[in-house]
Design goal:
Structural class: alpha+beta
Strand order of the largest sheet: 11-12-14-15-16-18-17
Largest sheet: 7 strands, mixed, barrel
Number of helices: 15
């Protein structure tokens, strides 16, 4: 009898468990939604194995519709919706109980009806194509304000937060945020504000290398959302030291979507930062007498914060120190400050007096690169503000300055209108156009403009600029930016940038209107585009430029993102064409010690070279470094079977030259 009773009880338990399992399928759950601080519906942006995450998106009202702005990895066909209202919600025919969640079916960019508390809402789900998403959550009461209101009230306000980072594939990182604080000068006055963020440990944003400190740039006044990113990536492509890497990122604060941001490595030093080889405490060895020099990072800054460690140079330039950062009561303050001032004063004098050994004091190549970045963009602050130097030891252990990193270019590449009185004093009437010089005429804010004075007085720099332009800038822009489908290099092709922004920009400009009204923004409705075709010698070097400009202007709609993006690209290419036409007479390429196509470097182009390339590609026999330069017969920056084919066509007489 006992065995029979035990069997009956076991069967009852099995049936009960099965009944619970069956009834729980599709039932509402009660997830932890840290972002839920007000009555709203929230959509879960994470669908990985761990059902719990901080990645919840609060609906946002605009023009009578409630939007869910979702990151790239979201599957819009089945969203987990959480209801924080005090009453049940019915969404697309599915009931979600109060403080519960349930999966609801949607289609992207379609309209659905939700009913909560007797009120009807129209819901639209939009999905981004940006490279990452960042969720910043802290539901605390900050003197009666939520986190966003508190942070944007005062640039000095800061807070810690939990986080959820998602990449394009939906991989999740939940490293906490140690500190988030406002950033920017002019940009801080905009409604969409930028921030600096420090994580507890290094994290990856998108597919960037791991970093601990980031600046999230709003690009509020740049309707293309791309100007900073393009010039940072261009600087990285041509080898400017410490060019900040960045990714287009959707940013959320307590679930509320605050827009498309450019998340980039913050200008900082130490492990897991933009400048990991610079030691913030190296100055201590100098101050205690154990070393004769130390590394530092400074910025020519027109508007330092009150508590910044600043050094006033003899020429009047204000240097804000990024590393080291000392308080005035630090025992090493005076000695450190004196060292920095002396090094900067000496370097500036060497540049202005055209010293023959100027490269011992400042790396002229980096100075030429950064000058050209600013001149290409007609960057309003060129050389006068947001202009950085790194003082460090070179490969031989000799300390000198490097012009780097590049920073702050949202008001460049035809975006800014400029200040009329300043333009008059410089004699510039074509600032908004892709023609005409600017950086070489720009006045300084405090003391002389470093770039203006350098390019006017230093012969080594003037000689270097055309070389850097034609050997670094023009190939990068013509072959990479104007290529197709390139996202495996530092500088992407223009179609790839657009592909990572189109849907994100739609979301961003529903959340924030395209800004064109402020006096600072230039007119983007028309452009007389410029063109250049290049003549090459047998080594693939530029020896001539054929320049032209349209007499009829191309028209653009400055309130449509795609048109704004195209205007920026057209302006950039027009600027490159004009600058090439101006620099060509000053450029004499140095003929390389190789022939194009001579992959085996035996002094002639033959079928052996095509074979050498094929063996190299098959990893059977490797080509020397010089041979790799020669092997790139089609000059696309890569050695492939296409180069072997090009050589074979040349040998067969089908094409006349390589």
């Amino acid at each position: 009898m006992k065995k029979i009773l035990s069997l009956i009880l076991a069967l009852i338990m099995i049936v009960s468990v099965c009944a619970v399992a069956v009834t729980s399928i599709g039932a509402e759950t009660a997830p932890t939604v840290t972002a839920s601080v007000t009555d709203a519906l929230y959509a879960h942006a994470y669908s990985g194995e761990d059902a719990e995450s901080e990645a919840w998106v609060k609906w946002y009202e605009k023009n009578g519709k409630m939007y869910f702005f979702m990151p790239t990895s979201t599957d819009p066909t089945k969203l987990e919706i959480y209801n924080s209202f005090g009453s049940d919600a019915t969404i697309n025919g599915v009931t979600v109980k109060s403080n519960q969640s349930k999966v609801v079916s949607f289609s992207e960019d379609a309209e659905y009806t939700a009913t909560v508390g007797g009120k009807n809402y129209i819901i639209v789900v939009l999905v981004s194509n940006a490279e990452a998403a960042m969720f910043i959550n802290n539901p605390a009461d900050f003197d009666g304000k939520n986190l966003w209101a508190y942070l944007t009230e005062d640039k000095e306000n800061s807070a810690s937060a939990t986080s959820a980072l998602l990449d394009e594939e939906g991989n999740l990182d939940t490293t906490p945020i140690k500190k988030i604080k406002g950033r920017g000068n002019t940009s801080w006055d905009a409604d969409k504000k930028g921030f600096n963020i420090t994580f507890d440990s290094a994290v990856k944003v998108g597919n960037m290398q791991k970093c601990k400190k980031f600046s999230i740039i709003s690009n509020f006044q740049d309707a293309s959302l791309t100007r900073n990113r393009l010039l940072y990536d261009l600087a990285d492509e041509i080898g400017v030291p410490y060019a900040s890497d960045s990714r287009f990122t959707e940013v959320y604060v307590n679930g509320e979507y605050i827009g498309n941001y450019q998340v980039c490595e913050k200008v900082d030093v130490g492990k897991n930062t933009l400048m990991p080889d610079i030691d913030d405490e190296e100055y201590l060895s100098y101050c205690d007498g154990t070393s004769s020099a130390f590394s530092f990072v400074c910025e020519i800054d027109s508007n330092p914060d009150e508590d910044d460690f600043t050094v006033k140079a003899s020429n009047g330039n204000n240097l804000t120190m990024k590393a080291p950062e000392l308080d005035s009561d630090d025992p090493n303050y005076a000695k450190t400050r004196s060292f920095i001032k002396n090094k900067y004063d000496t370097m500036f004098t060497k540049v202005l007096t055209n010293a023959s050994n100027v490269n011992d004091y400042i790396d002229i190549e980096s100075l030429a690169q950064v000058y050209l970045i600013n001149e290409l963009g007609k960057n309003w602050d060129a050389g006068a503000g947001s202009f950085f130097f790194v003082y460090k030891a070179d490969e031989n252990g000799n300390y000198k300055f490097y012009a780097s990193p590049v920073w702050d270019y949202d008001n460049s590449l035809g975006n800014a209108q400029g200040v009329e009185r300043d333009l008059r004093s410089m004699g510039i009437t074509d600032y908004e156009e892709p023609t005409g010089w600017f950086a070489k005429h720009k006045n300084g804010y405090r003391g002389p403009n470093f770039l203006k004075e350098s390019v006017a007085r230093n012969d080594a720099l003037k000689k270097m600029i055309p070389t850097v332009w034609f050997e670094q800038f023009v190939p990068a822009i013509n072959e990479k930016l104007n290529g197709e489908g390139l996202n495996d290099t530092e500088l992407y092709s223009k179609d790839v940038y657009l592909s990572k922004l189109t849907k994100s920009a739609k979301m961003n400009f529903i959340r924030w209107d395209i800004v064109q009204e402020p006096q600072w923004i230039a007119d983007h409705t028309s452009l007389n585009k410029c063109y250049a075709t290049y003549e090459y010698n047998k080594y693939g070097q530029i020896v001539g430029v054929n320049y032209s400009q349209d007499k009829t202007a191309t028209k653009y709609d400055q309130y449509v993102f795609e048109a704004e993006y195209q205007y920026m690209i057209d302006w950039t290419n027009s600027r490159v064409a004009w600058m090439s036409s101006q620099y060509i007479d000053s450029y004499t390429p140095v003929e390389p010690a190789y022939l194009i196509g001579d992959a085996d470097t035996d002094g002639e182009v033959s079928i052996l070279d095509a074979t050498a390339i094929q063996l190299h590609i098959a990893d059977i026999q490797h080509i020397s470094d010089l041979g790799l330069l020669a092997a790139d017969a089609d000059r696309d920056g890569d050695v492939s079977v296409l180069d072997a084919t090009q050589i074979q066509l040349y040998i067969a007489g089908i094409i006349d030259e390589l």
